[in-house]
Design a protein that fits this description.
Blueprint lengths: L1 H8 L2 E6 L1 H6 L2 H13 L3 E6 L9 H8 L7 E3 H4 L8 E5 L30 E6 L22 E5 L2 H14 L13 H11 L2 E6 L1 H6 L2 H13 L3 E6 L9 H8 L7 E3 H4 L8 E5 L30 E6 L22 E5 L2 H14 L1
Parallel strand pairs: 1-2, 1-4, 2-3, 4-5, 5-6, 7-8, 7-10, 8-9, 10-11, 11-12
């Protein structure tokens, strides 16, 4: 769950309590989450809107019941400038008091009402019972789809949503640092897959040698279960015979309509979050566009480097069948590449484990 990763990665969190917290009597779970965040060194404050709840001071009373220190409760005018420097704003059952429509929806009951500027935060987690308008009857644009990179909307009872958030925080670890201060390639790849909406998988001869197609199917299934769009890019000369990749993927029941020929899939890479290459080399080698005099110069390739992130599972950094170095294996070539070296079964298992941790 991405909200667990956001909280793990955060340095500062602002919690916005509202009437939904009161109805659910979820303040004790809010206190529990606060304690766990602070134990990890994360700064936590509370943003209190003067009309949150059903009476002045309603939120203060509920939070005082569970021994939230009073100096953590910030009034709107004081806390609003801080949202833009906040990693996660967590809204619990508040609607009108965070509704950006107050700034734009002329003629509505909340137009002109000062609100808490939660959408200025880097990430926003909203726990609300449903998507219906608040007391003022004005739709909240924060509930609209299309902002999943910034906003997670958790519908239902606040206690259940908060328990799910706590569980996600506990199990989702920040990728461990390796020498040099950066995440390992598997961990970067897992995080990119978690954040992705669209993934294109490029199978190659390395998948065939490793007989890793069942793991490819497993990863596809897990990604699709999380609502991600997964397609396959098939180069006409991938493998050792025409249709080699199609046959291997058919063996594990990857639907045929997910297999796209090069000319059909190439325009989609620039709109793709992750291109995952499994044992393909020459057919994705950008040197085909530049390395005059080499066997692959001028050969049409799959434009994987146009994807936002590229994950490469390859046995080693050696050139492919054509003997031409692949610049995608050079860390200085471009950012956003994770190179996982070794047998494809091993690296795919590591990638799947890293993805599950998020």
């Amino acid at each position: 769950m991405k909200c667990g990763y956001w909280l793990r990665e955060a340095e500062r969190v602002i919690i916005v309590p509202g009437y939904g917290m009161a109805l659910s009597q979820a303040q004790s779970i809010v206190k529990q989450l606060t304690a766990e965040l602070e134990q990890e060194g994360i700064e936590v404050d509370f943003a209190i809107h003067p009309v949150a709840g059903r009476m002045p001071g309603h939120m203060n009373v509920l939070l005082a019941e569970v021994d939230i220190p009073y100096d953590k409760l910030r009034e709107m005018d004081e806390i609003n400038p801080a949202f833009k420097d906040t990693d996660v704003a967590l809204v619990i059952g508040a609607n009108d008091v965070v509704n950006p429509a107050a700034n734009t929806a002329e003629g509505t009951p909340i137009y002109g009402m000062p609100i808490l500027d939660v959408e200025d935060a880097k990430h926003l987690i909203i726990c609300n019972f449903d998507k219906l308008p608040g007391y003022a009857g004005v739709d909240n644009p924060l509930y609209d789809e299309g902002r999943e990179d910034q906003i997670v909307l958790m519908l239902g009872d606040a206690k259940e949503s908060l328990n799910a958030i706590i569980q996600a925080f506990r199990v989702c670890q920040i990728p461990q640092k390796i020498e040099g201060g950066e995440s390992s390639p598997e961990e970067k790849g897992g995080r990119w897959l978690e954040e992705a909406k669209r993934v294109i998988i490029v199978p190659g001869y390395g998948m065939a040698l490793s007989q890793a197609q069942s793991l490819v199917k497993q990863l596809m299934t897990e990604l699709e279960a999380a609502g991600k769009d997964v397609q396959f890019a098939i180069h006409p000369v991938a493998g050792r015979m025409p249709g080699h990749m199609n046959v291997l993927l058919a063996e594990v029941d990857v639907p045929y309509d997910k297999l796209h020929e090069m000319q059909d899939i190439n325009p989609a890479f620039k709109e793709t979050d992750v291109a995952l290459i499994i044992g393909a080399n020459d057919v994705v080698n950008p040197a085909a566009n530049t390395a005059e005099g080499t066997p692959i110069y001028g050969m049409p390739i799959l434009d994987v480097e146009e994807a936002r992130h590229v994950i490469i599972c390859n046995y080693d950094k050696q050139p492919g069948y054509a003997g031409v170095d692949n610049p995608l294996y050079d860390e200085s070539y471009r950012s956003g590449i994770a190179l996982l070296l070794g047998d494809a079964k091993v690296t795919l298992n590591e990638l799947i484990r890293a993805y599950r941790k998020c």
